[in-house]
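Weekly puzzle thread! Below is a chain. First person to post its structure in token form gets bragging rights.
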Amino acid sequence: MGSVTHIEDEKKELVQNVHRLTWLGVQLVDSPMVGVKVHMGSKLSFVVHVKSKQDLDPILLELNELVLKKSVEAFSQGGYGVLRDQGRLCVPNDDGLREKLFEEAHGSRYSIHPGAKKIYRDLREVYWWNGRKKDIEEFVAKCPNCQQGVMRFGKNRKLSPRYIGPYKKFEAYWESCL
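Winning reply:
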């Protein structure tokens, strides 16, 4: 915004306050009909961050070009020029952004470590990216709290036969009944 040295001493504090409001995204507009109007022009920081990363993702850049040519109906440009799939925010292939979403959805105070299905259902309403379900399953599989009660063995960390055995017995029982 700049220096306030050229302004009268009694008005400097007012000008500095207007500058602070501008940094917060508030605009004061002088209107001849109404007087001074306050306009909130703040942006969501996550959406702005996604937009900056969308410009670097080759797949989303290609989709954005198709949207501009109007050859794709499912995708559109939303507010701030962000690419959206049927209203859902397209998250670029940037591990930091997706990890941030996973941690927020999985580690929330109110949800107590939901499984992959619950996280998938929650995130698919708001966000889109290719391979979303697989990424979510991998994230939940790496969570130490979720894996605490499950016994695994061997080099590939497969489930213990103790967990698999009863299910095979049930299958054999139901097949004999049919």
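Puzzle host: Confirmed. Bonus trivia for everyone else. Residues 44-91 form one domain.
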